[in-house]
Amino acid sequence: MRLLTGSALLAVLLIAGCTTMTPAERRALDNQTCSSYGFKLGGDGFASCLLNLELDRRAASRAQFDDMRFNNPPIIFYGGGRYHRHHRR
After folding, report:
1. Quick count: other Cβ atoms within 10 Å of Cβ 57?
2. What span, in angstroms and rounded, lies between the C-alpha atoms of 7 and 34?
């Protein structure tokens, strides 16, 4: 089941990368995904499936943020010769 969830998440991320999805569109896609796994709307399994999709989506978002944050070295500026003192003569 994790493989199917991962595949569905990957499909959602690919679709989201191409277009902006509204929350209603995302929910409809999640409902369709969980229904395709055999869960019945309104059941505990269906709710758990929706929760897992959302948690996977959030984890992927955090991982992407961490990649952006830690893979780029910080830029450090030193004062060096930028600032010149003007002396009156």
Report:
1. 16
2. 12
Compute the radius of gyration of the chain from its Cα atoms. Answer: 23
Tokens of 84: 């010149």
**To which residue do tokens 């961490």 refer?**
66
Answer yes or no: pTM beyond 0.70.
no
Closest CA to 36 of 12, 13, 58, 15: 12
Q: Tell me the per-residue pLDDT of 9-48, one tens digit each, with 9 for 90 and over.
A: 666 666 655 668 899 999 999 999 999 999 999 999 999 9
Q: DSSP assignment of the chain, as one string?
A: -HHHHHHHHHHHHHHHHHSPPPHHHHHHHHHHHHHHTTPPTTSHHHHHHHHHHHHHHHHHHHHHHHHHHHSSPPP----TTS--PPPP-
Q: Which of 52, 22, 25 is closest to 37 using CA atoms?
A: 52
